[in-house]
TrEMBL record:
This is Serine/threonine protein kinase. The chain crosses the membrane at residues 390-411. GO terms for molecular function: ATP binding; protein serine/threonine kinase activity. The keyword Transmembrane applies. Residues 15-265 form the Protein kinase domain. Residues 317-326, 339-351, 424-444 have a biased composition (Low complexity). Residues 297-381, 417-448 are annotated as: Disordered. Residues 327-338 have a biased composition (Pro residues).
């Protein structure tokens, strides 16, 4: 627990604020004490100024769902005031660390203990689903383990199954289900998949996917069900692998899991004579939490070292394995003309959108001091609002929940390599037109060979280095245009010097001169939701470098002239229309694809990612 900050209130409703637990999404969680001495966890909204109607409705919905699932399996709602000037909700304070913190600090669990945690978590999910609620963000950080058994917390992106919704969500990527990663509806079976991923984590110490070092690649693995189950104890395989089946209809229900696990757990408990079933290290950490809570209740605020991992009642995960990014660009990049200028966007909905692509822009190479850019880390995720056709817009309040929603889509008539969206896995066919321009010639230069192999219509895993204006790779790497790492698409390969490549904020070219031959690739940016790019203010407008990519969690590592990150939330056909929304956030708009489309983006809030769950 952290001490109250300067911007924290002294009290919330009838509860005196003792300290700050965490900042989750657009809310903050405090420890409070009632006049009678009861400890509670109090969640409030972080919105600046007046709380919007949309934010108030979302908060009231979270309160309603949390009240529906009261019982011994979660943190019960004690009190709430969703209509207050600053809405708040008080829940019982759970004196236990999360499974995530326990594994991180004490190591994985032995198989017998995993089965007992599985039984308790299955019982919690069964109660949740019986109440008609799908959690949608089951993960190690959202399961607390006090002495009396697991508790499932955080209903910020849960949904009631009896409410018709068009909103889709994605929980934390490493624990989400394939159908959620593909933009399909979350169901009770999605929670079971997430439970299986959580059980794998506490048994092995890692999520059930290869560490790709990049969020978008990880999301691709999840969408395909491309699991890496190395290290899973054989005795846990039947349980975990059933939960991780790609077909939601083939996964067991929580009640079925409980029926299977209960007799096994009872038999093993009898065989051990009632001895503690958790490892000593786990027991000591749980007892330490309980001791801290008792002290807090008896003498007031307890302020442990804020650097200490794990805080009672928490549940937020630190950066997951996807937070690492691609390697930095090569130290000796290829010769390349200056980067495409940054482009201006005006706020959505304020006035008719202006195409300011020709506006003067800062030279992104003015300053190269500071840490090298890290292209993609964790793309935040959350519900996406589905529109007709393939156009989508993802509200940032849920993009910044601990995990990202990527909806596979393709602009009609623009990309034969991509399958259409629609909530199912992309079916990819290699039908890109192959032309005969610049046929490859034998050469011992691998870079020249790589450039010679590129054809019009190919997509490449490359992006602009924000500060040098050079490309992130030494040579082009072709990838399928439906892949998440497809950053740019080749529009032509037969230009003489790049000056006749199409111009625009989302267009550039890549030059390689081998001495014997010069190769020019004309490129167009491929847009995907949740990706971030650097920007700066220009009055009421925003200047952004659309050809660049940046780790959304590393906005504090930007150097001048850039000041903050923008996050893409939508791509829409045509240059007209605005990006405004009723979710209380401000959006900006850029004209792209030669005027055929426009993207929407919002400015990441100060303190991101601490401000997300």
């Amino acid at each position: 627990m952290l001490p109250p900050g300067a911007d924290d209130p002294e009290s919330i409703g009838p509860y005196r604020v003792l300290g700050r637990l965490s900042t989750v999404g657009m809310g903050r969680v405090h420890v409070g004490r009632s006049p009678g001495g009861r400890l509670v966890a109090v969640k409030t909204l972080l919105a600046e100024g007046e709380v919007s109607d949309a934010a108030r409705r979302r908060f009231a919905r979270e309160v309603s769902l949390a009240r529906r699932v009261g019982g011994p399996y979660t943190a019960n709602v004690v009190d709430a005031a969703p209509d207050a000037e600053r809405p708040w909700m008080a829940t019982e304070f759970i004196p236990g660390p999360s499974l995530h913190d326990l594994v991180r600090l004490c190591g994985p669990l032995p198989s017998d203990a995993v089965l007992r945690v599985a039984a308790g978590a299955a019982e919690a999910l069964h109660a949740l689903h019986e109440a008609g609620v799908v959690h949608r963000d089951v993960k190690p950080g959202n399961i607390l383990l006090p002495a009396d058994g697991p508790r499932l917390i955080d209903f910020g992106i849960s949904q009631a199954t009896d409410i018709t919704r068009t909103t889709l969500t994605l929980g934390t990527i490493s624990y989400t289900s394939p159908e959620q990663a593909r933009g399909e509806e979350s169901t009770a079976a999605s929670d079971v998949y997430s439970l299986g991923a959580t059980l794998f984590h506490i048994a092995t110490g890692r999520p059930p996917y290869r560490d790709t070092g990049d969020t978008l690649r990880l999301l691709g693995q999840v969408a395909r069900g491309d699991l890496d189950l190395a290290g899973l104890p054989p005795e846990l395989e039947p349980l975990v692998m059933r939960c991780l089946r790609d077909d939601p209809g083939q996964r067991p229900r929580p009640g079925e899991l409980l029926d299977e696990l209960a007799p096994v757990v009872a038999a093993r408990q009898a065989a051990t004579g009632g001895a503690p079933w958790l490892p000593p290290e786990w027991l000591r950490l749980i007892e330490a939490y309980e001791t801290e809570v008792r002290a807090l209740g008896e003498r007031g605020p307890a302020v442990p070292d804020p650097r200490a991992p794990g805080r009672p009642g928490g549940g937020s995960d630190p950066a997951d394995p996807a937070a690492t990014a691609f390697p930095a660009p090569p130290s000796t990049p290829l010769p390349e003309p200056a980067a495409a200028p940054a482009v201006l966007a005006s706020p959505a909905g304020d006035a008719p959108t202006r195409d300011l692509r020709a506006a003067p822009a800062p030279d992104p190479r003015l300053r190269v001091s500071g840490p090298p850019p890290r292209p993609f880390g964790r793309g935040p995720g959350g519900p996406g609002r589905r529109f007709s056709g393939v156009w989508w817009l993802v509200p940032p309040v849920v993009l910044s929940i601990l995990a990202a929603l990527i909806v596979l889509w393709v602009v009609p008539g623009r990309d034969n390599d991509s399958a259409a969206a629609g909530g199912s896995p992309a079916t990819v066919t290699a039908t890109a037109t192959r032309t005969t321009e610049n046929s490859p010639t034998p050469t011992s230069d691998p870079t020249a060979r790589a450039f010679a192999a590129v054809r019009t219509g190919d997509c490449l895993d490359a992006y602009k280095n924000t500060f040098t204006g050079r490309w992130s790779a030494e040579m082009p790497k072709r990838v399928n245009c439906a892949a998440y790492e497809a950053h740019v698409k080749v529009t032509s390969t037969n230009k003489d010097d790049g000056t006749d490549c199409p111009r625009g904020p989302d267009r550039s070219h890549w030059l390689y001169d081998s001495g014997a031959d010069t190769k020019i690739l004309c490129l167009e940016r491929q847009f995907s939701p949740a990706r971030c790019f650097p920007a700066r203010s220009s009055g009421d407008d925003v200047e952004g470098d659309l050809m660049a990519s940046w780790d959304c969690d590393k906005g504090d590592q930007l150097a001048l002239p850039y000041e903050f990150l923008m996050q893409m939330t939508g791509l829409n056909q045509g240059s007209s229309g605005d990006c405004s929304s009723d979710d209380g956030h401000r959006y900006w708009k850029w004209i792209v694809q030669g005027g055929e489309a426009h993207i929407c983006a919002w400015r990441l809030p100060p303190g991101y990612p601490e401000t997300k769950s």
